[in-house]
From TrEMBL:
Pfam families: Aldedh. It comes from Cryobacterium gelidum. GO terms for molecular function: oxidoreductase activity, acting on the aldehyde or oxo group of donors, NAD or NADP as acceptor. Residues 20-404 form the Aldehyde dehydrogenase domain. The keyword Disulfide bond does not apply. This is Aldehyde dehydrogenase (NADP(+)). CDD domains: ALDH_KGSADH. Residues 1-31, 482-509 are annotated as: Disordered. The keyword Oxidoreductase applies. SUPFAM superfamilies: ALDH-like (SSF53720). Keywords: Oxidoreductase.
Length: 509
């Protein structure tokens, strides 16, 4: 087995040339109808084969990921497992067939509005998908991560623009997964990789690409979203961009479990060096909370952790300095940040405090996401004003968290929960947002700037919806219909059927 760890003879893959990008796009285009036509169980078996291959190569892949990203073995081992679980979840989703949303309305000469034709609607794959991989999840949001798994499950070939932060891991993961898919019956070109920013932009403009997904910064995501929208034929662009995930603690919650709140908050801020899209960037505590010493003590016990790459470390240094220099900001745990000779940064948690009025006054300096182990404690006077403060301060987020006392259900608490639901994709009660369960009911998305499309999710089985397009067939002969729409139902998927004469009973409740 080839090892890429500390191997100077193994250079990072070269940027993909325009000619190579064109070949990649054409292979995906050629594979598209073949992959889409595979019966659900065959496509599901291919996804399971990919999951098995990842786990069979766990030791090698985790070692490469540790070398390139600085993340811990425990974190990466768990993330690889999560990536395999995502593939298996989508395998079951395919076999279940509900995601196709098959609707059949029988021809009806007695329809309430006149003669109704035979109508059959389902959701079909959109075509080749371009996925821009993330830096902070080298498995779960990268080559074989959630976006790739969802697009493949929907029946689309996927081209992954590999992230420059882990190029050798990307190459190895892509080779392993593509081979497993093809051995299981997928056509050549079902999963491919490209390298380099220019190649990603070129393919995003290519008319053969039908949709794109992205996880990264607001700046880069907005540029790519605008490119997708400005194409002669615009395409859907599903970007996850930025989130500060505010958390709110009531006085009752603080009096009941102050130590537990302090433990959970510091762990959530410092996990993976704070390089998580769900890190709580702001914690609202009542004035006089008395938690400063507890937070400082817990932060001081956290060992330094390497940031993902020199670019992220430099960005964190600038953001941290800006926050520490802002008027009204008081350090609770100043933390540390050191650099080695290669520009890699090593950090311990920084936690600061600010009064809510000062946060409002310094919003330009303080409200942007700090990608790293830094969070801001916001001191408020009245719980009755929390929802109003949130409305004044925050745009869309992936999450919002509430810590309340046992049985607490005040009008102000209800107003706060309602505000979070209107401005975030996931509302947490009593927990912490880092840690996203891969499960059918998960929602990982939110209003701008958390995502470019707040009606979708990038985690959970509903993530498949992004890469499907509805189409209806009218009066089509059975032999010419797609398999899920035929009366014989060879794919054995759920079919919702409107029967002849049924419209005459509509509204008779």
């Amino acid at each position: 087995m080839t090892s890429y760890v500390n191997s100077p003879s193994t250079p990072a893959p070269a940027p993909t040339s325009p000619a190579e990008s064109g070949q990649v796009a054409q292979r995906a285009t050629d594979a598209s109808p073949v992959w889409a036509a595979l019966p659900p169980r065959e496509r599901a078996r291919a996804l399971v084969a990919a999951a098995d291959a990842l786990e069979a190569n766990r030791a090698e892949l985790v070692a490469v990921a540790m070398s390139e990203t600085g993340l811990s073995e425990a974190r990466l081992t768990g993330e690889l497992t999560r990536t395999a679980v995502q593939l298996r979840l989508f395998a079951d989703t395919i076999v279940d067939g509900t995601y196709l949303d098959v609707r059949i309305d029988d021809a009806d000469p007695h329809f309430a509005l006149g003669v109704r034709p035979d109508l059959r609607r389902y959701r079909m794959p959109v075509g080749p998908v371009l996925n821009f991989a993330a830096s902070n999840f080298p498995f779960a949001f990268s080559v074989a991560g959630g976006d790739t798994a969802a697009a493949l499950a929907a029946g689309n070939p996927v081209i992954v623009k590999a992230h420059s932060g882990h190029p050798m891991l990307s190459e190895r993961t892509g080779a392993i997964v593509a081979a497993a898919l093809e051995v299981a019956g997928a056509p050549v070109g079902t999963l491919q990789l490209i390298y380099g920013q220019a190649a990603g932009v070129d393919l995003l403009k290519d008319p053969r690409i039908a949709a794109a997904s992205f996880t990264g910064s607001i700046r880069a995501g907005r540029i790519l979203a605008d490119i997708a929208a400005a194409r002669p034929a615009p395409i859907p662009f599903y970007g996850e961009l930025g989130s500060v995930n505010p958390a709110f603690v009531t006085r009752a919650a603080l009096s009941e479990r102050a130590d537990t709140i302090a433990d959970g908050y510091v762990a959530s801020v410092s996990g993976s060096a704070g390089q998580l899209c769900t890190k709580p960037g702001f914690l609202f505590l009542p004035v006089g909370h008395g938690l400063a010493d507890a937070l400082a003590g817990r932060a001081d016990t956290v060992a330094e952790h390497r940031l993902l790459n020199p670019g992220i470390a430099a960005g964190y240094r600038a953001r941290r300095a800006s926050i520490l220099a802002a008027p009204g900001v008081t350090p609770i745990a100043e933390g540390s940040l050191r650099f080695d000779n290669e520009g890699q940064g090593w950090a311990t948690p920084t936690i600061v405090s600010v009064r809510v009025d000062d946060l409002i006054a310094q919003r330009d300096a303080l409200l942007d996401e700090a990608f790293g182990p830094l969070s801001i404690v916001v001191e408020y006077e009245s719980e009755d004003e929390l929802a109003a403060h949130a409305e004044d301060l925050f745009e869309g987020n992936l999450t919002g968290t509430v810590h309340a006392g046992a049985g607490e259900a005040s009008l102000s608490l209800r107003a706060l929960i309602r505000w979070i639901a209107e401005h975030a994709g996931r509302v947490l009660f009593g927990g912490w947002p880092t840690g996203v369960a891969v499960t059918p009911a998960m929602q990982h998305g939110g209003p701008w700037p958390a995502t470019t499309n707040d009606t979708s999710t990038s985690v959970g089985s509903a993530a498949i919806d992004r890469f499907l397009r509805p189409v209806a067939y009218q009066d089509m002969p059975q032999a010419l219909l797609p398999e899920p729409l035929r009366d014989e139902n060879p794919w054995d998927v759920p079919q919702q059927r409107g029967l002849e004469g049924e419209s005459l009973t509509w509204g008779h409740i």
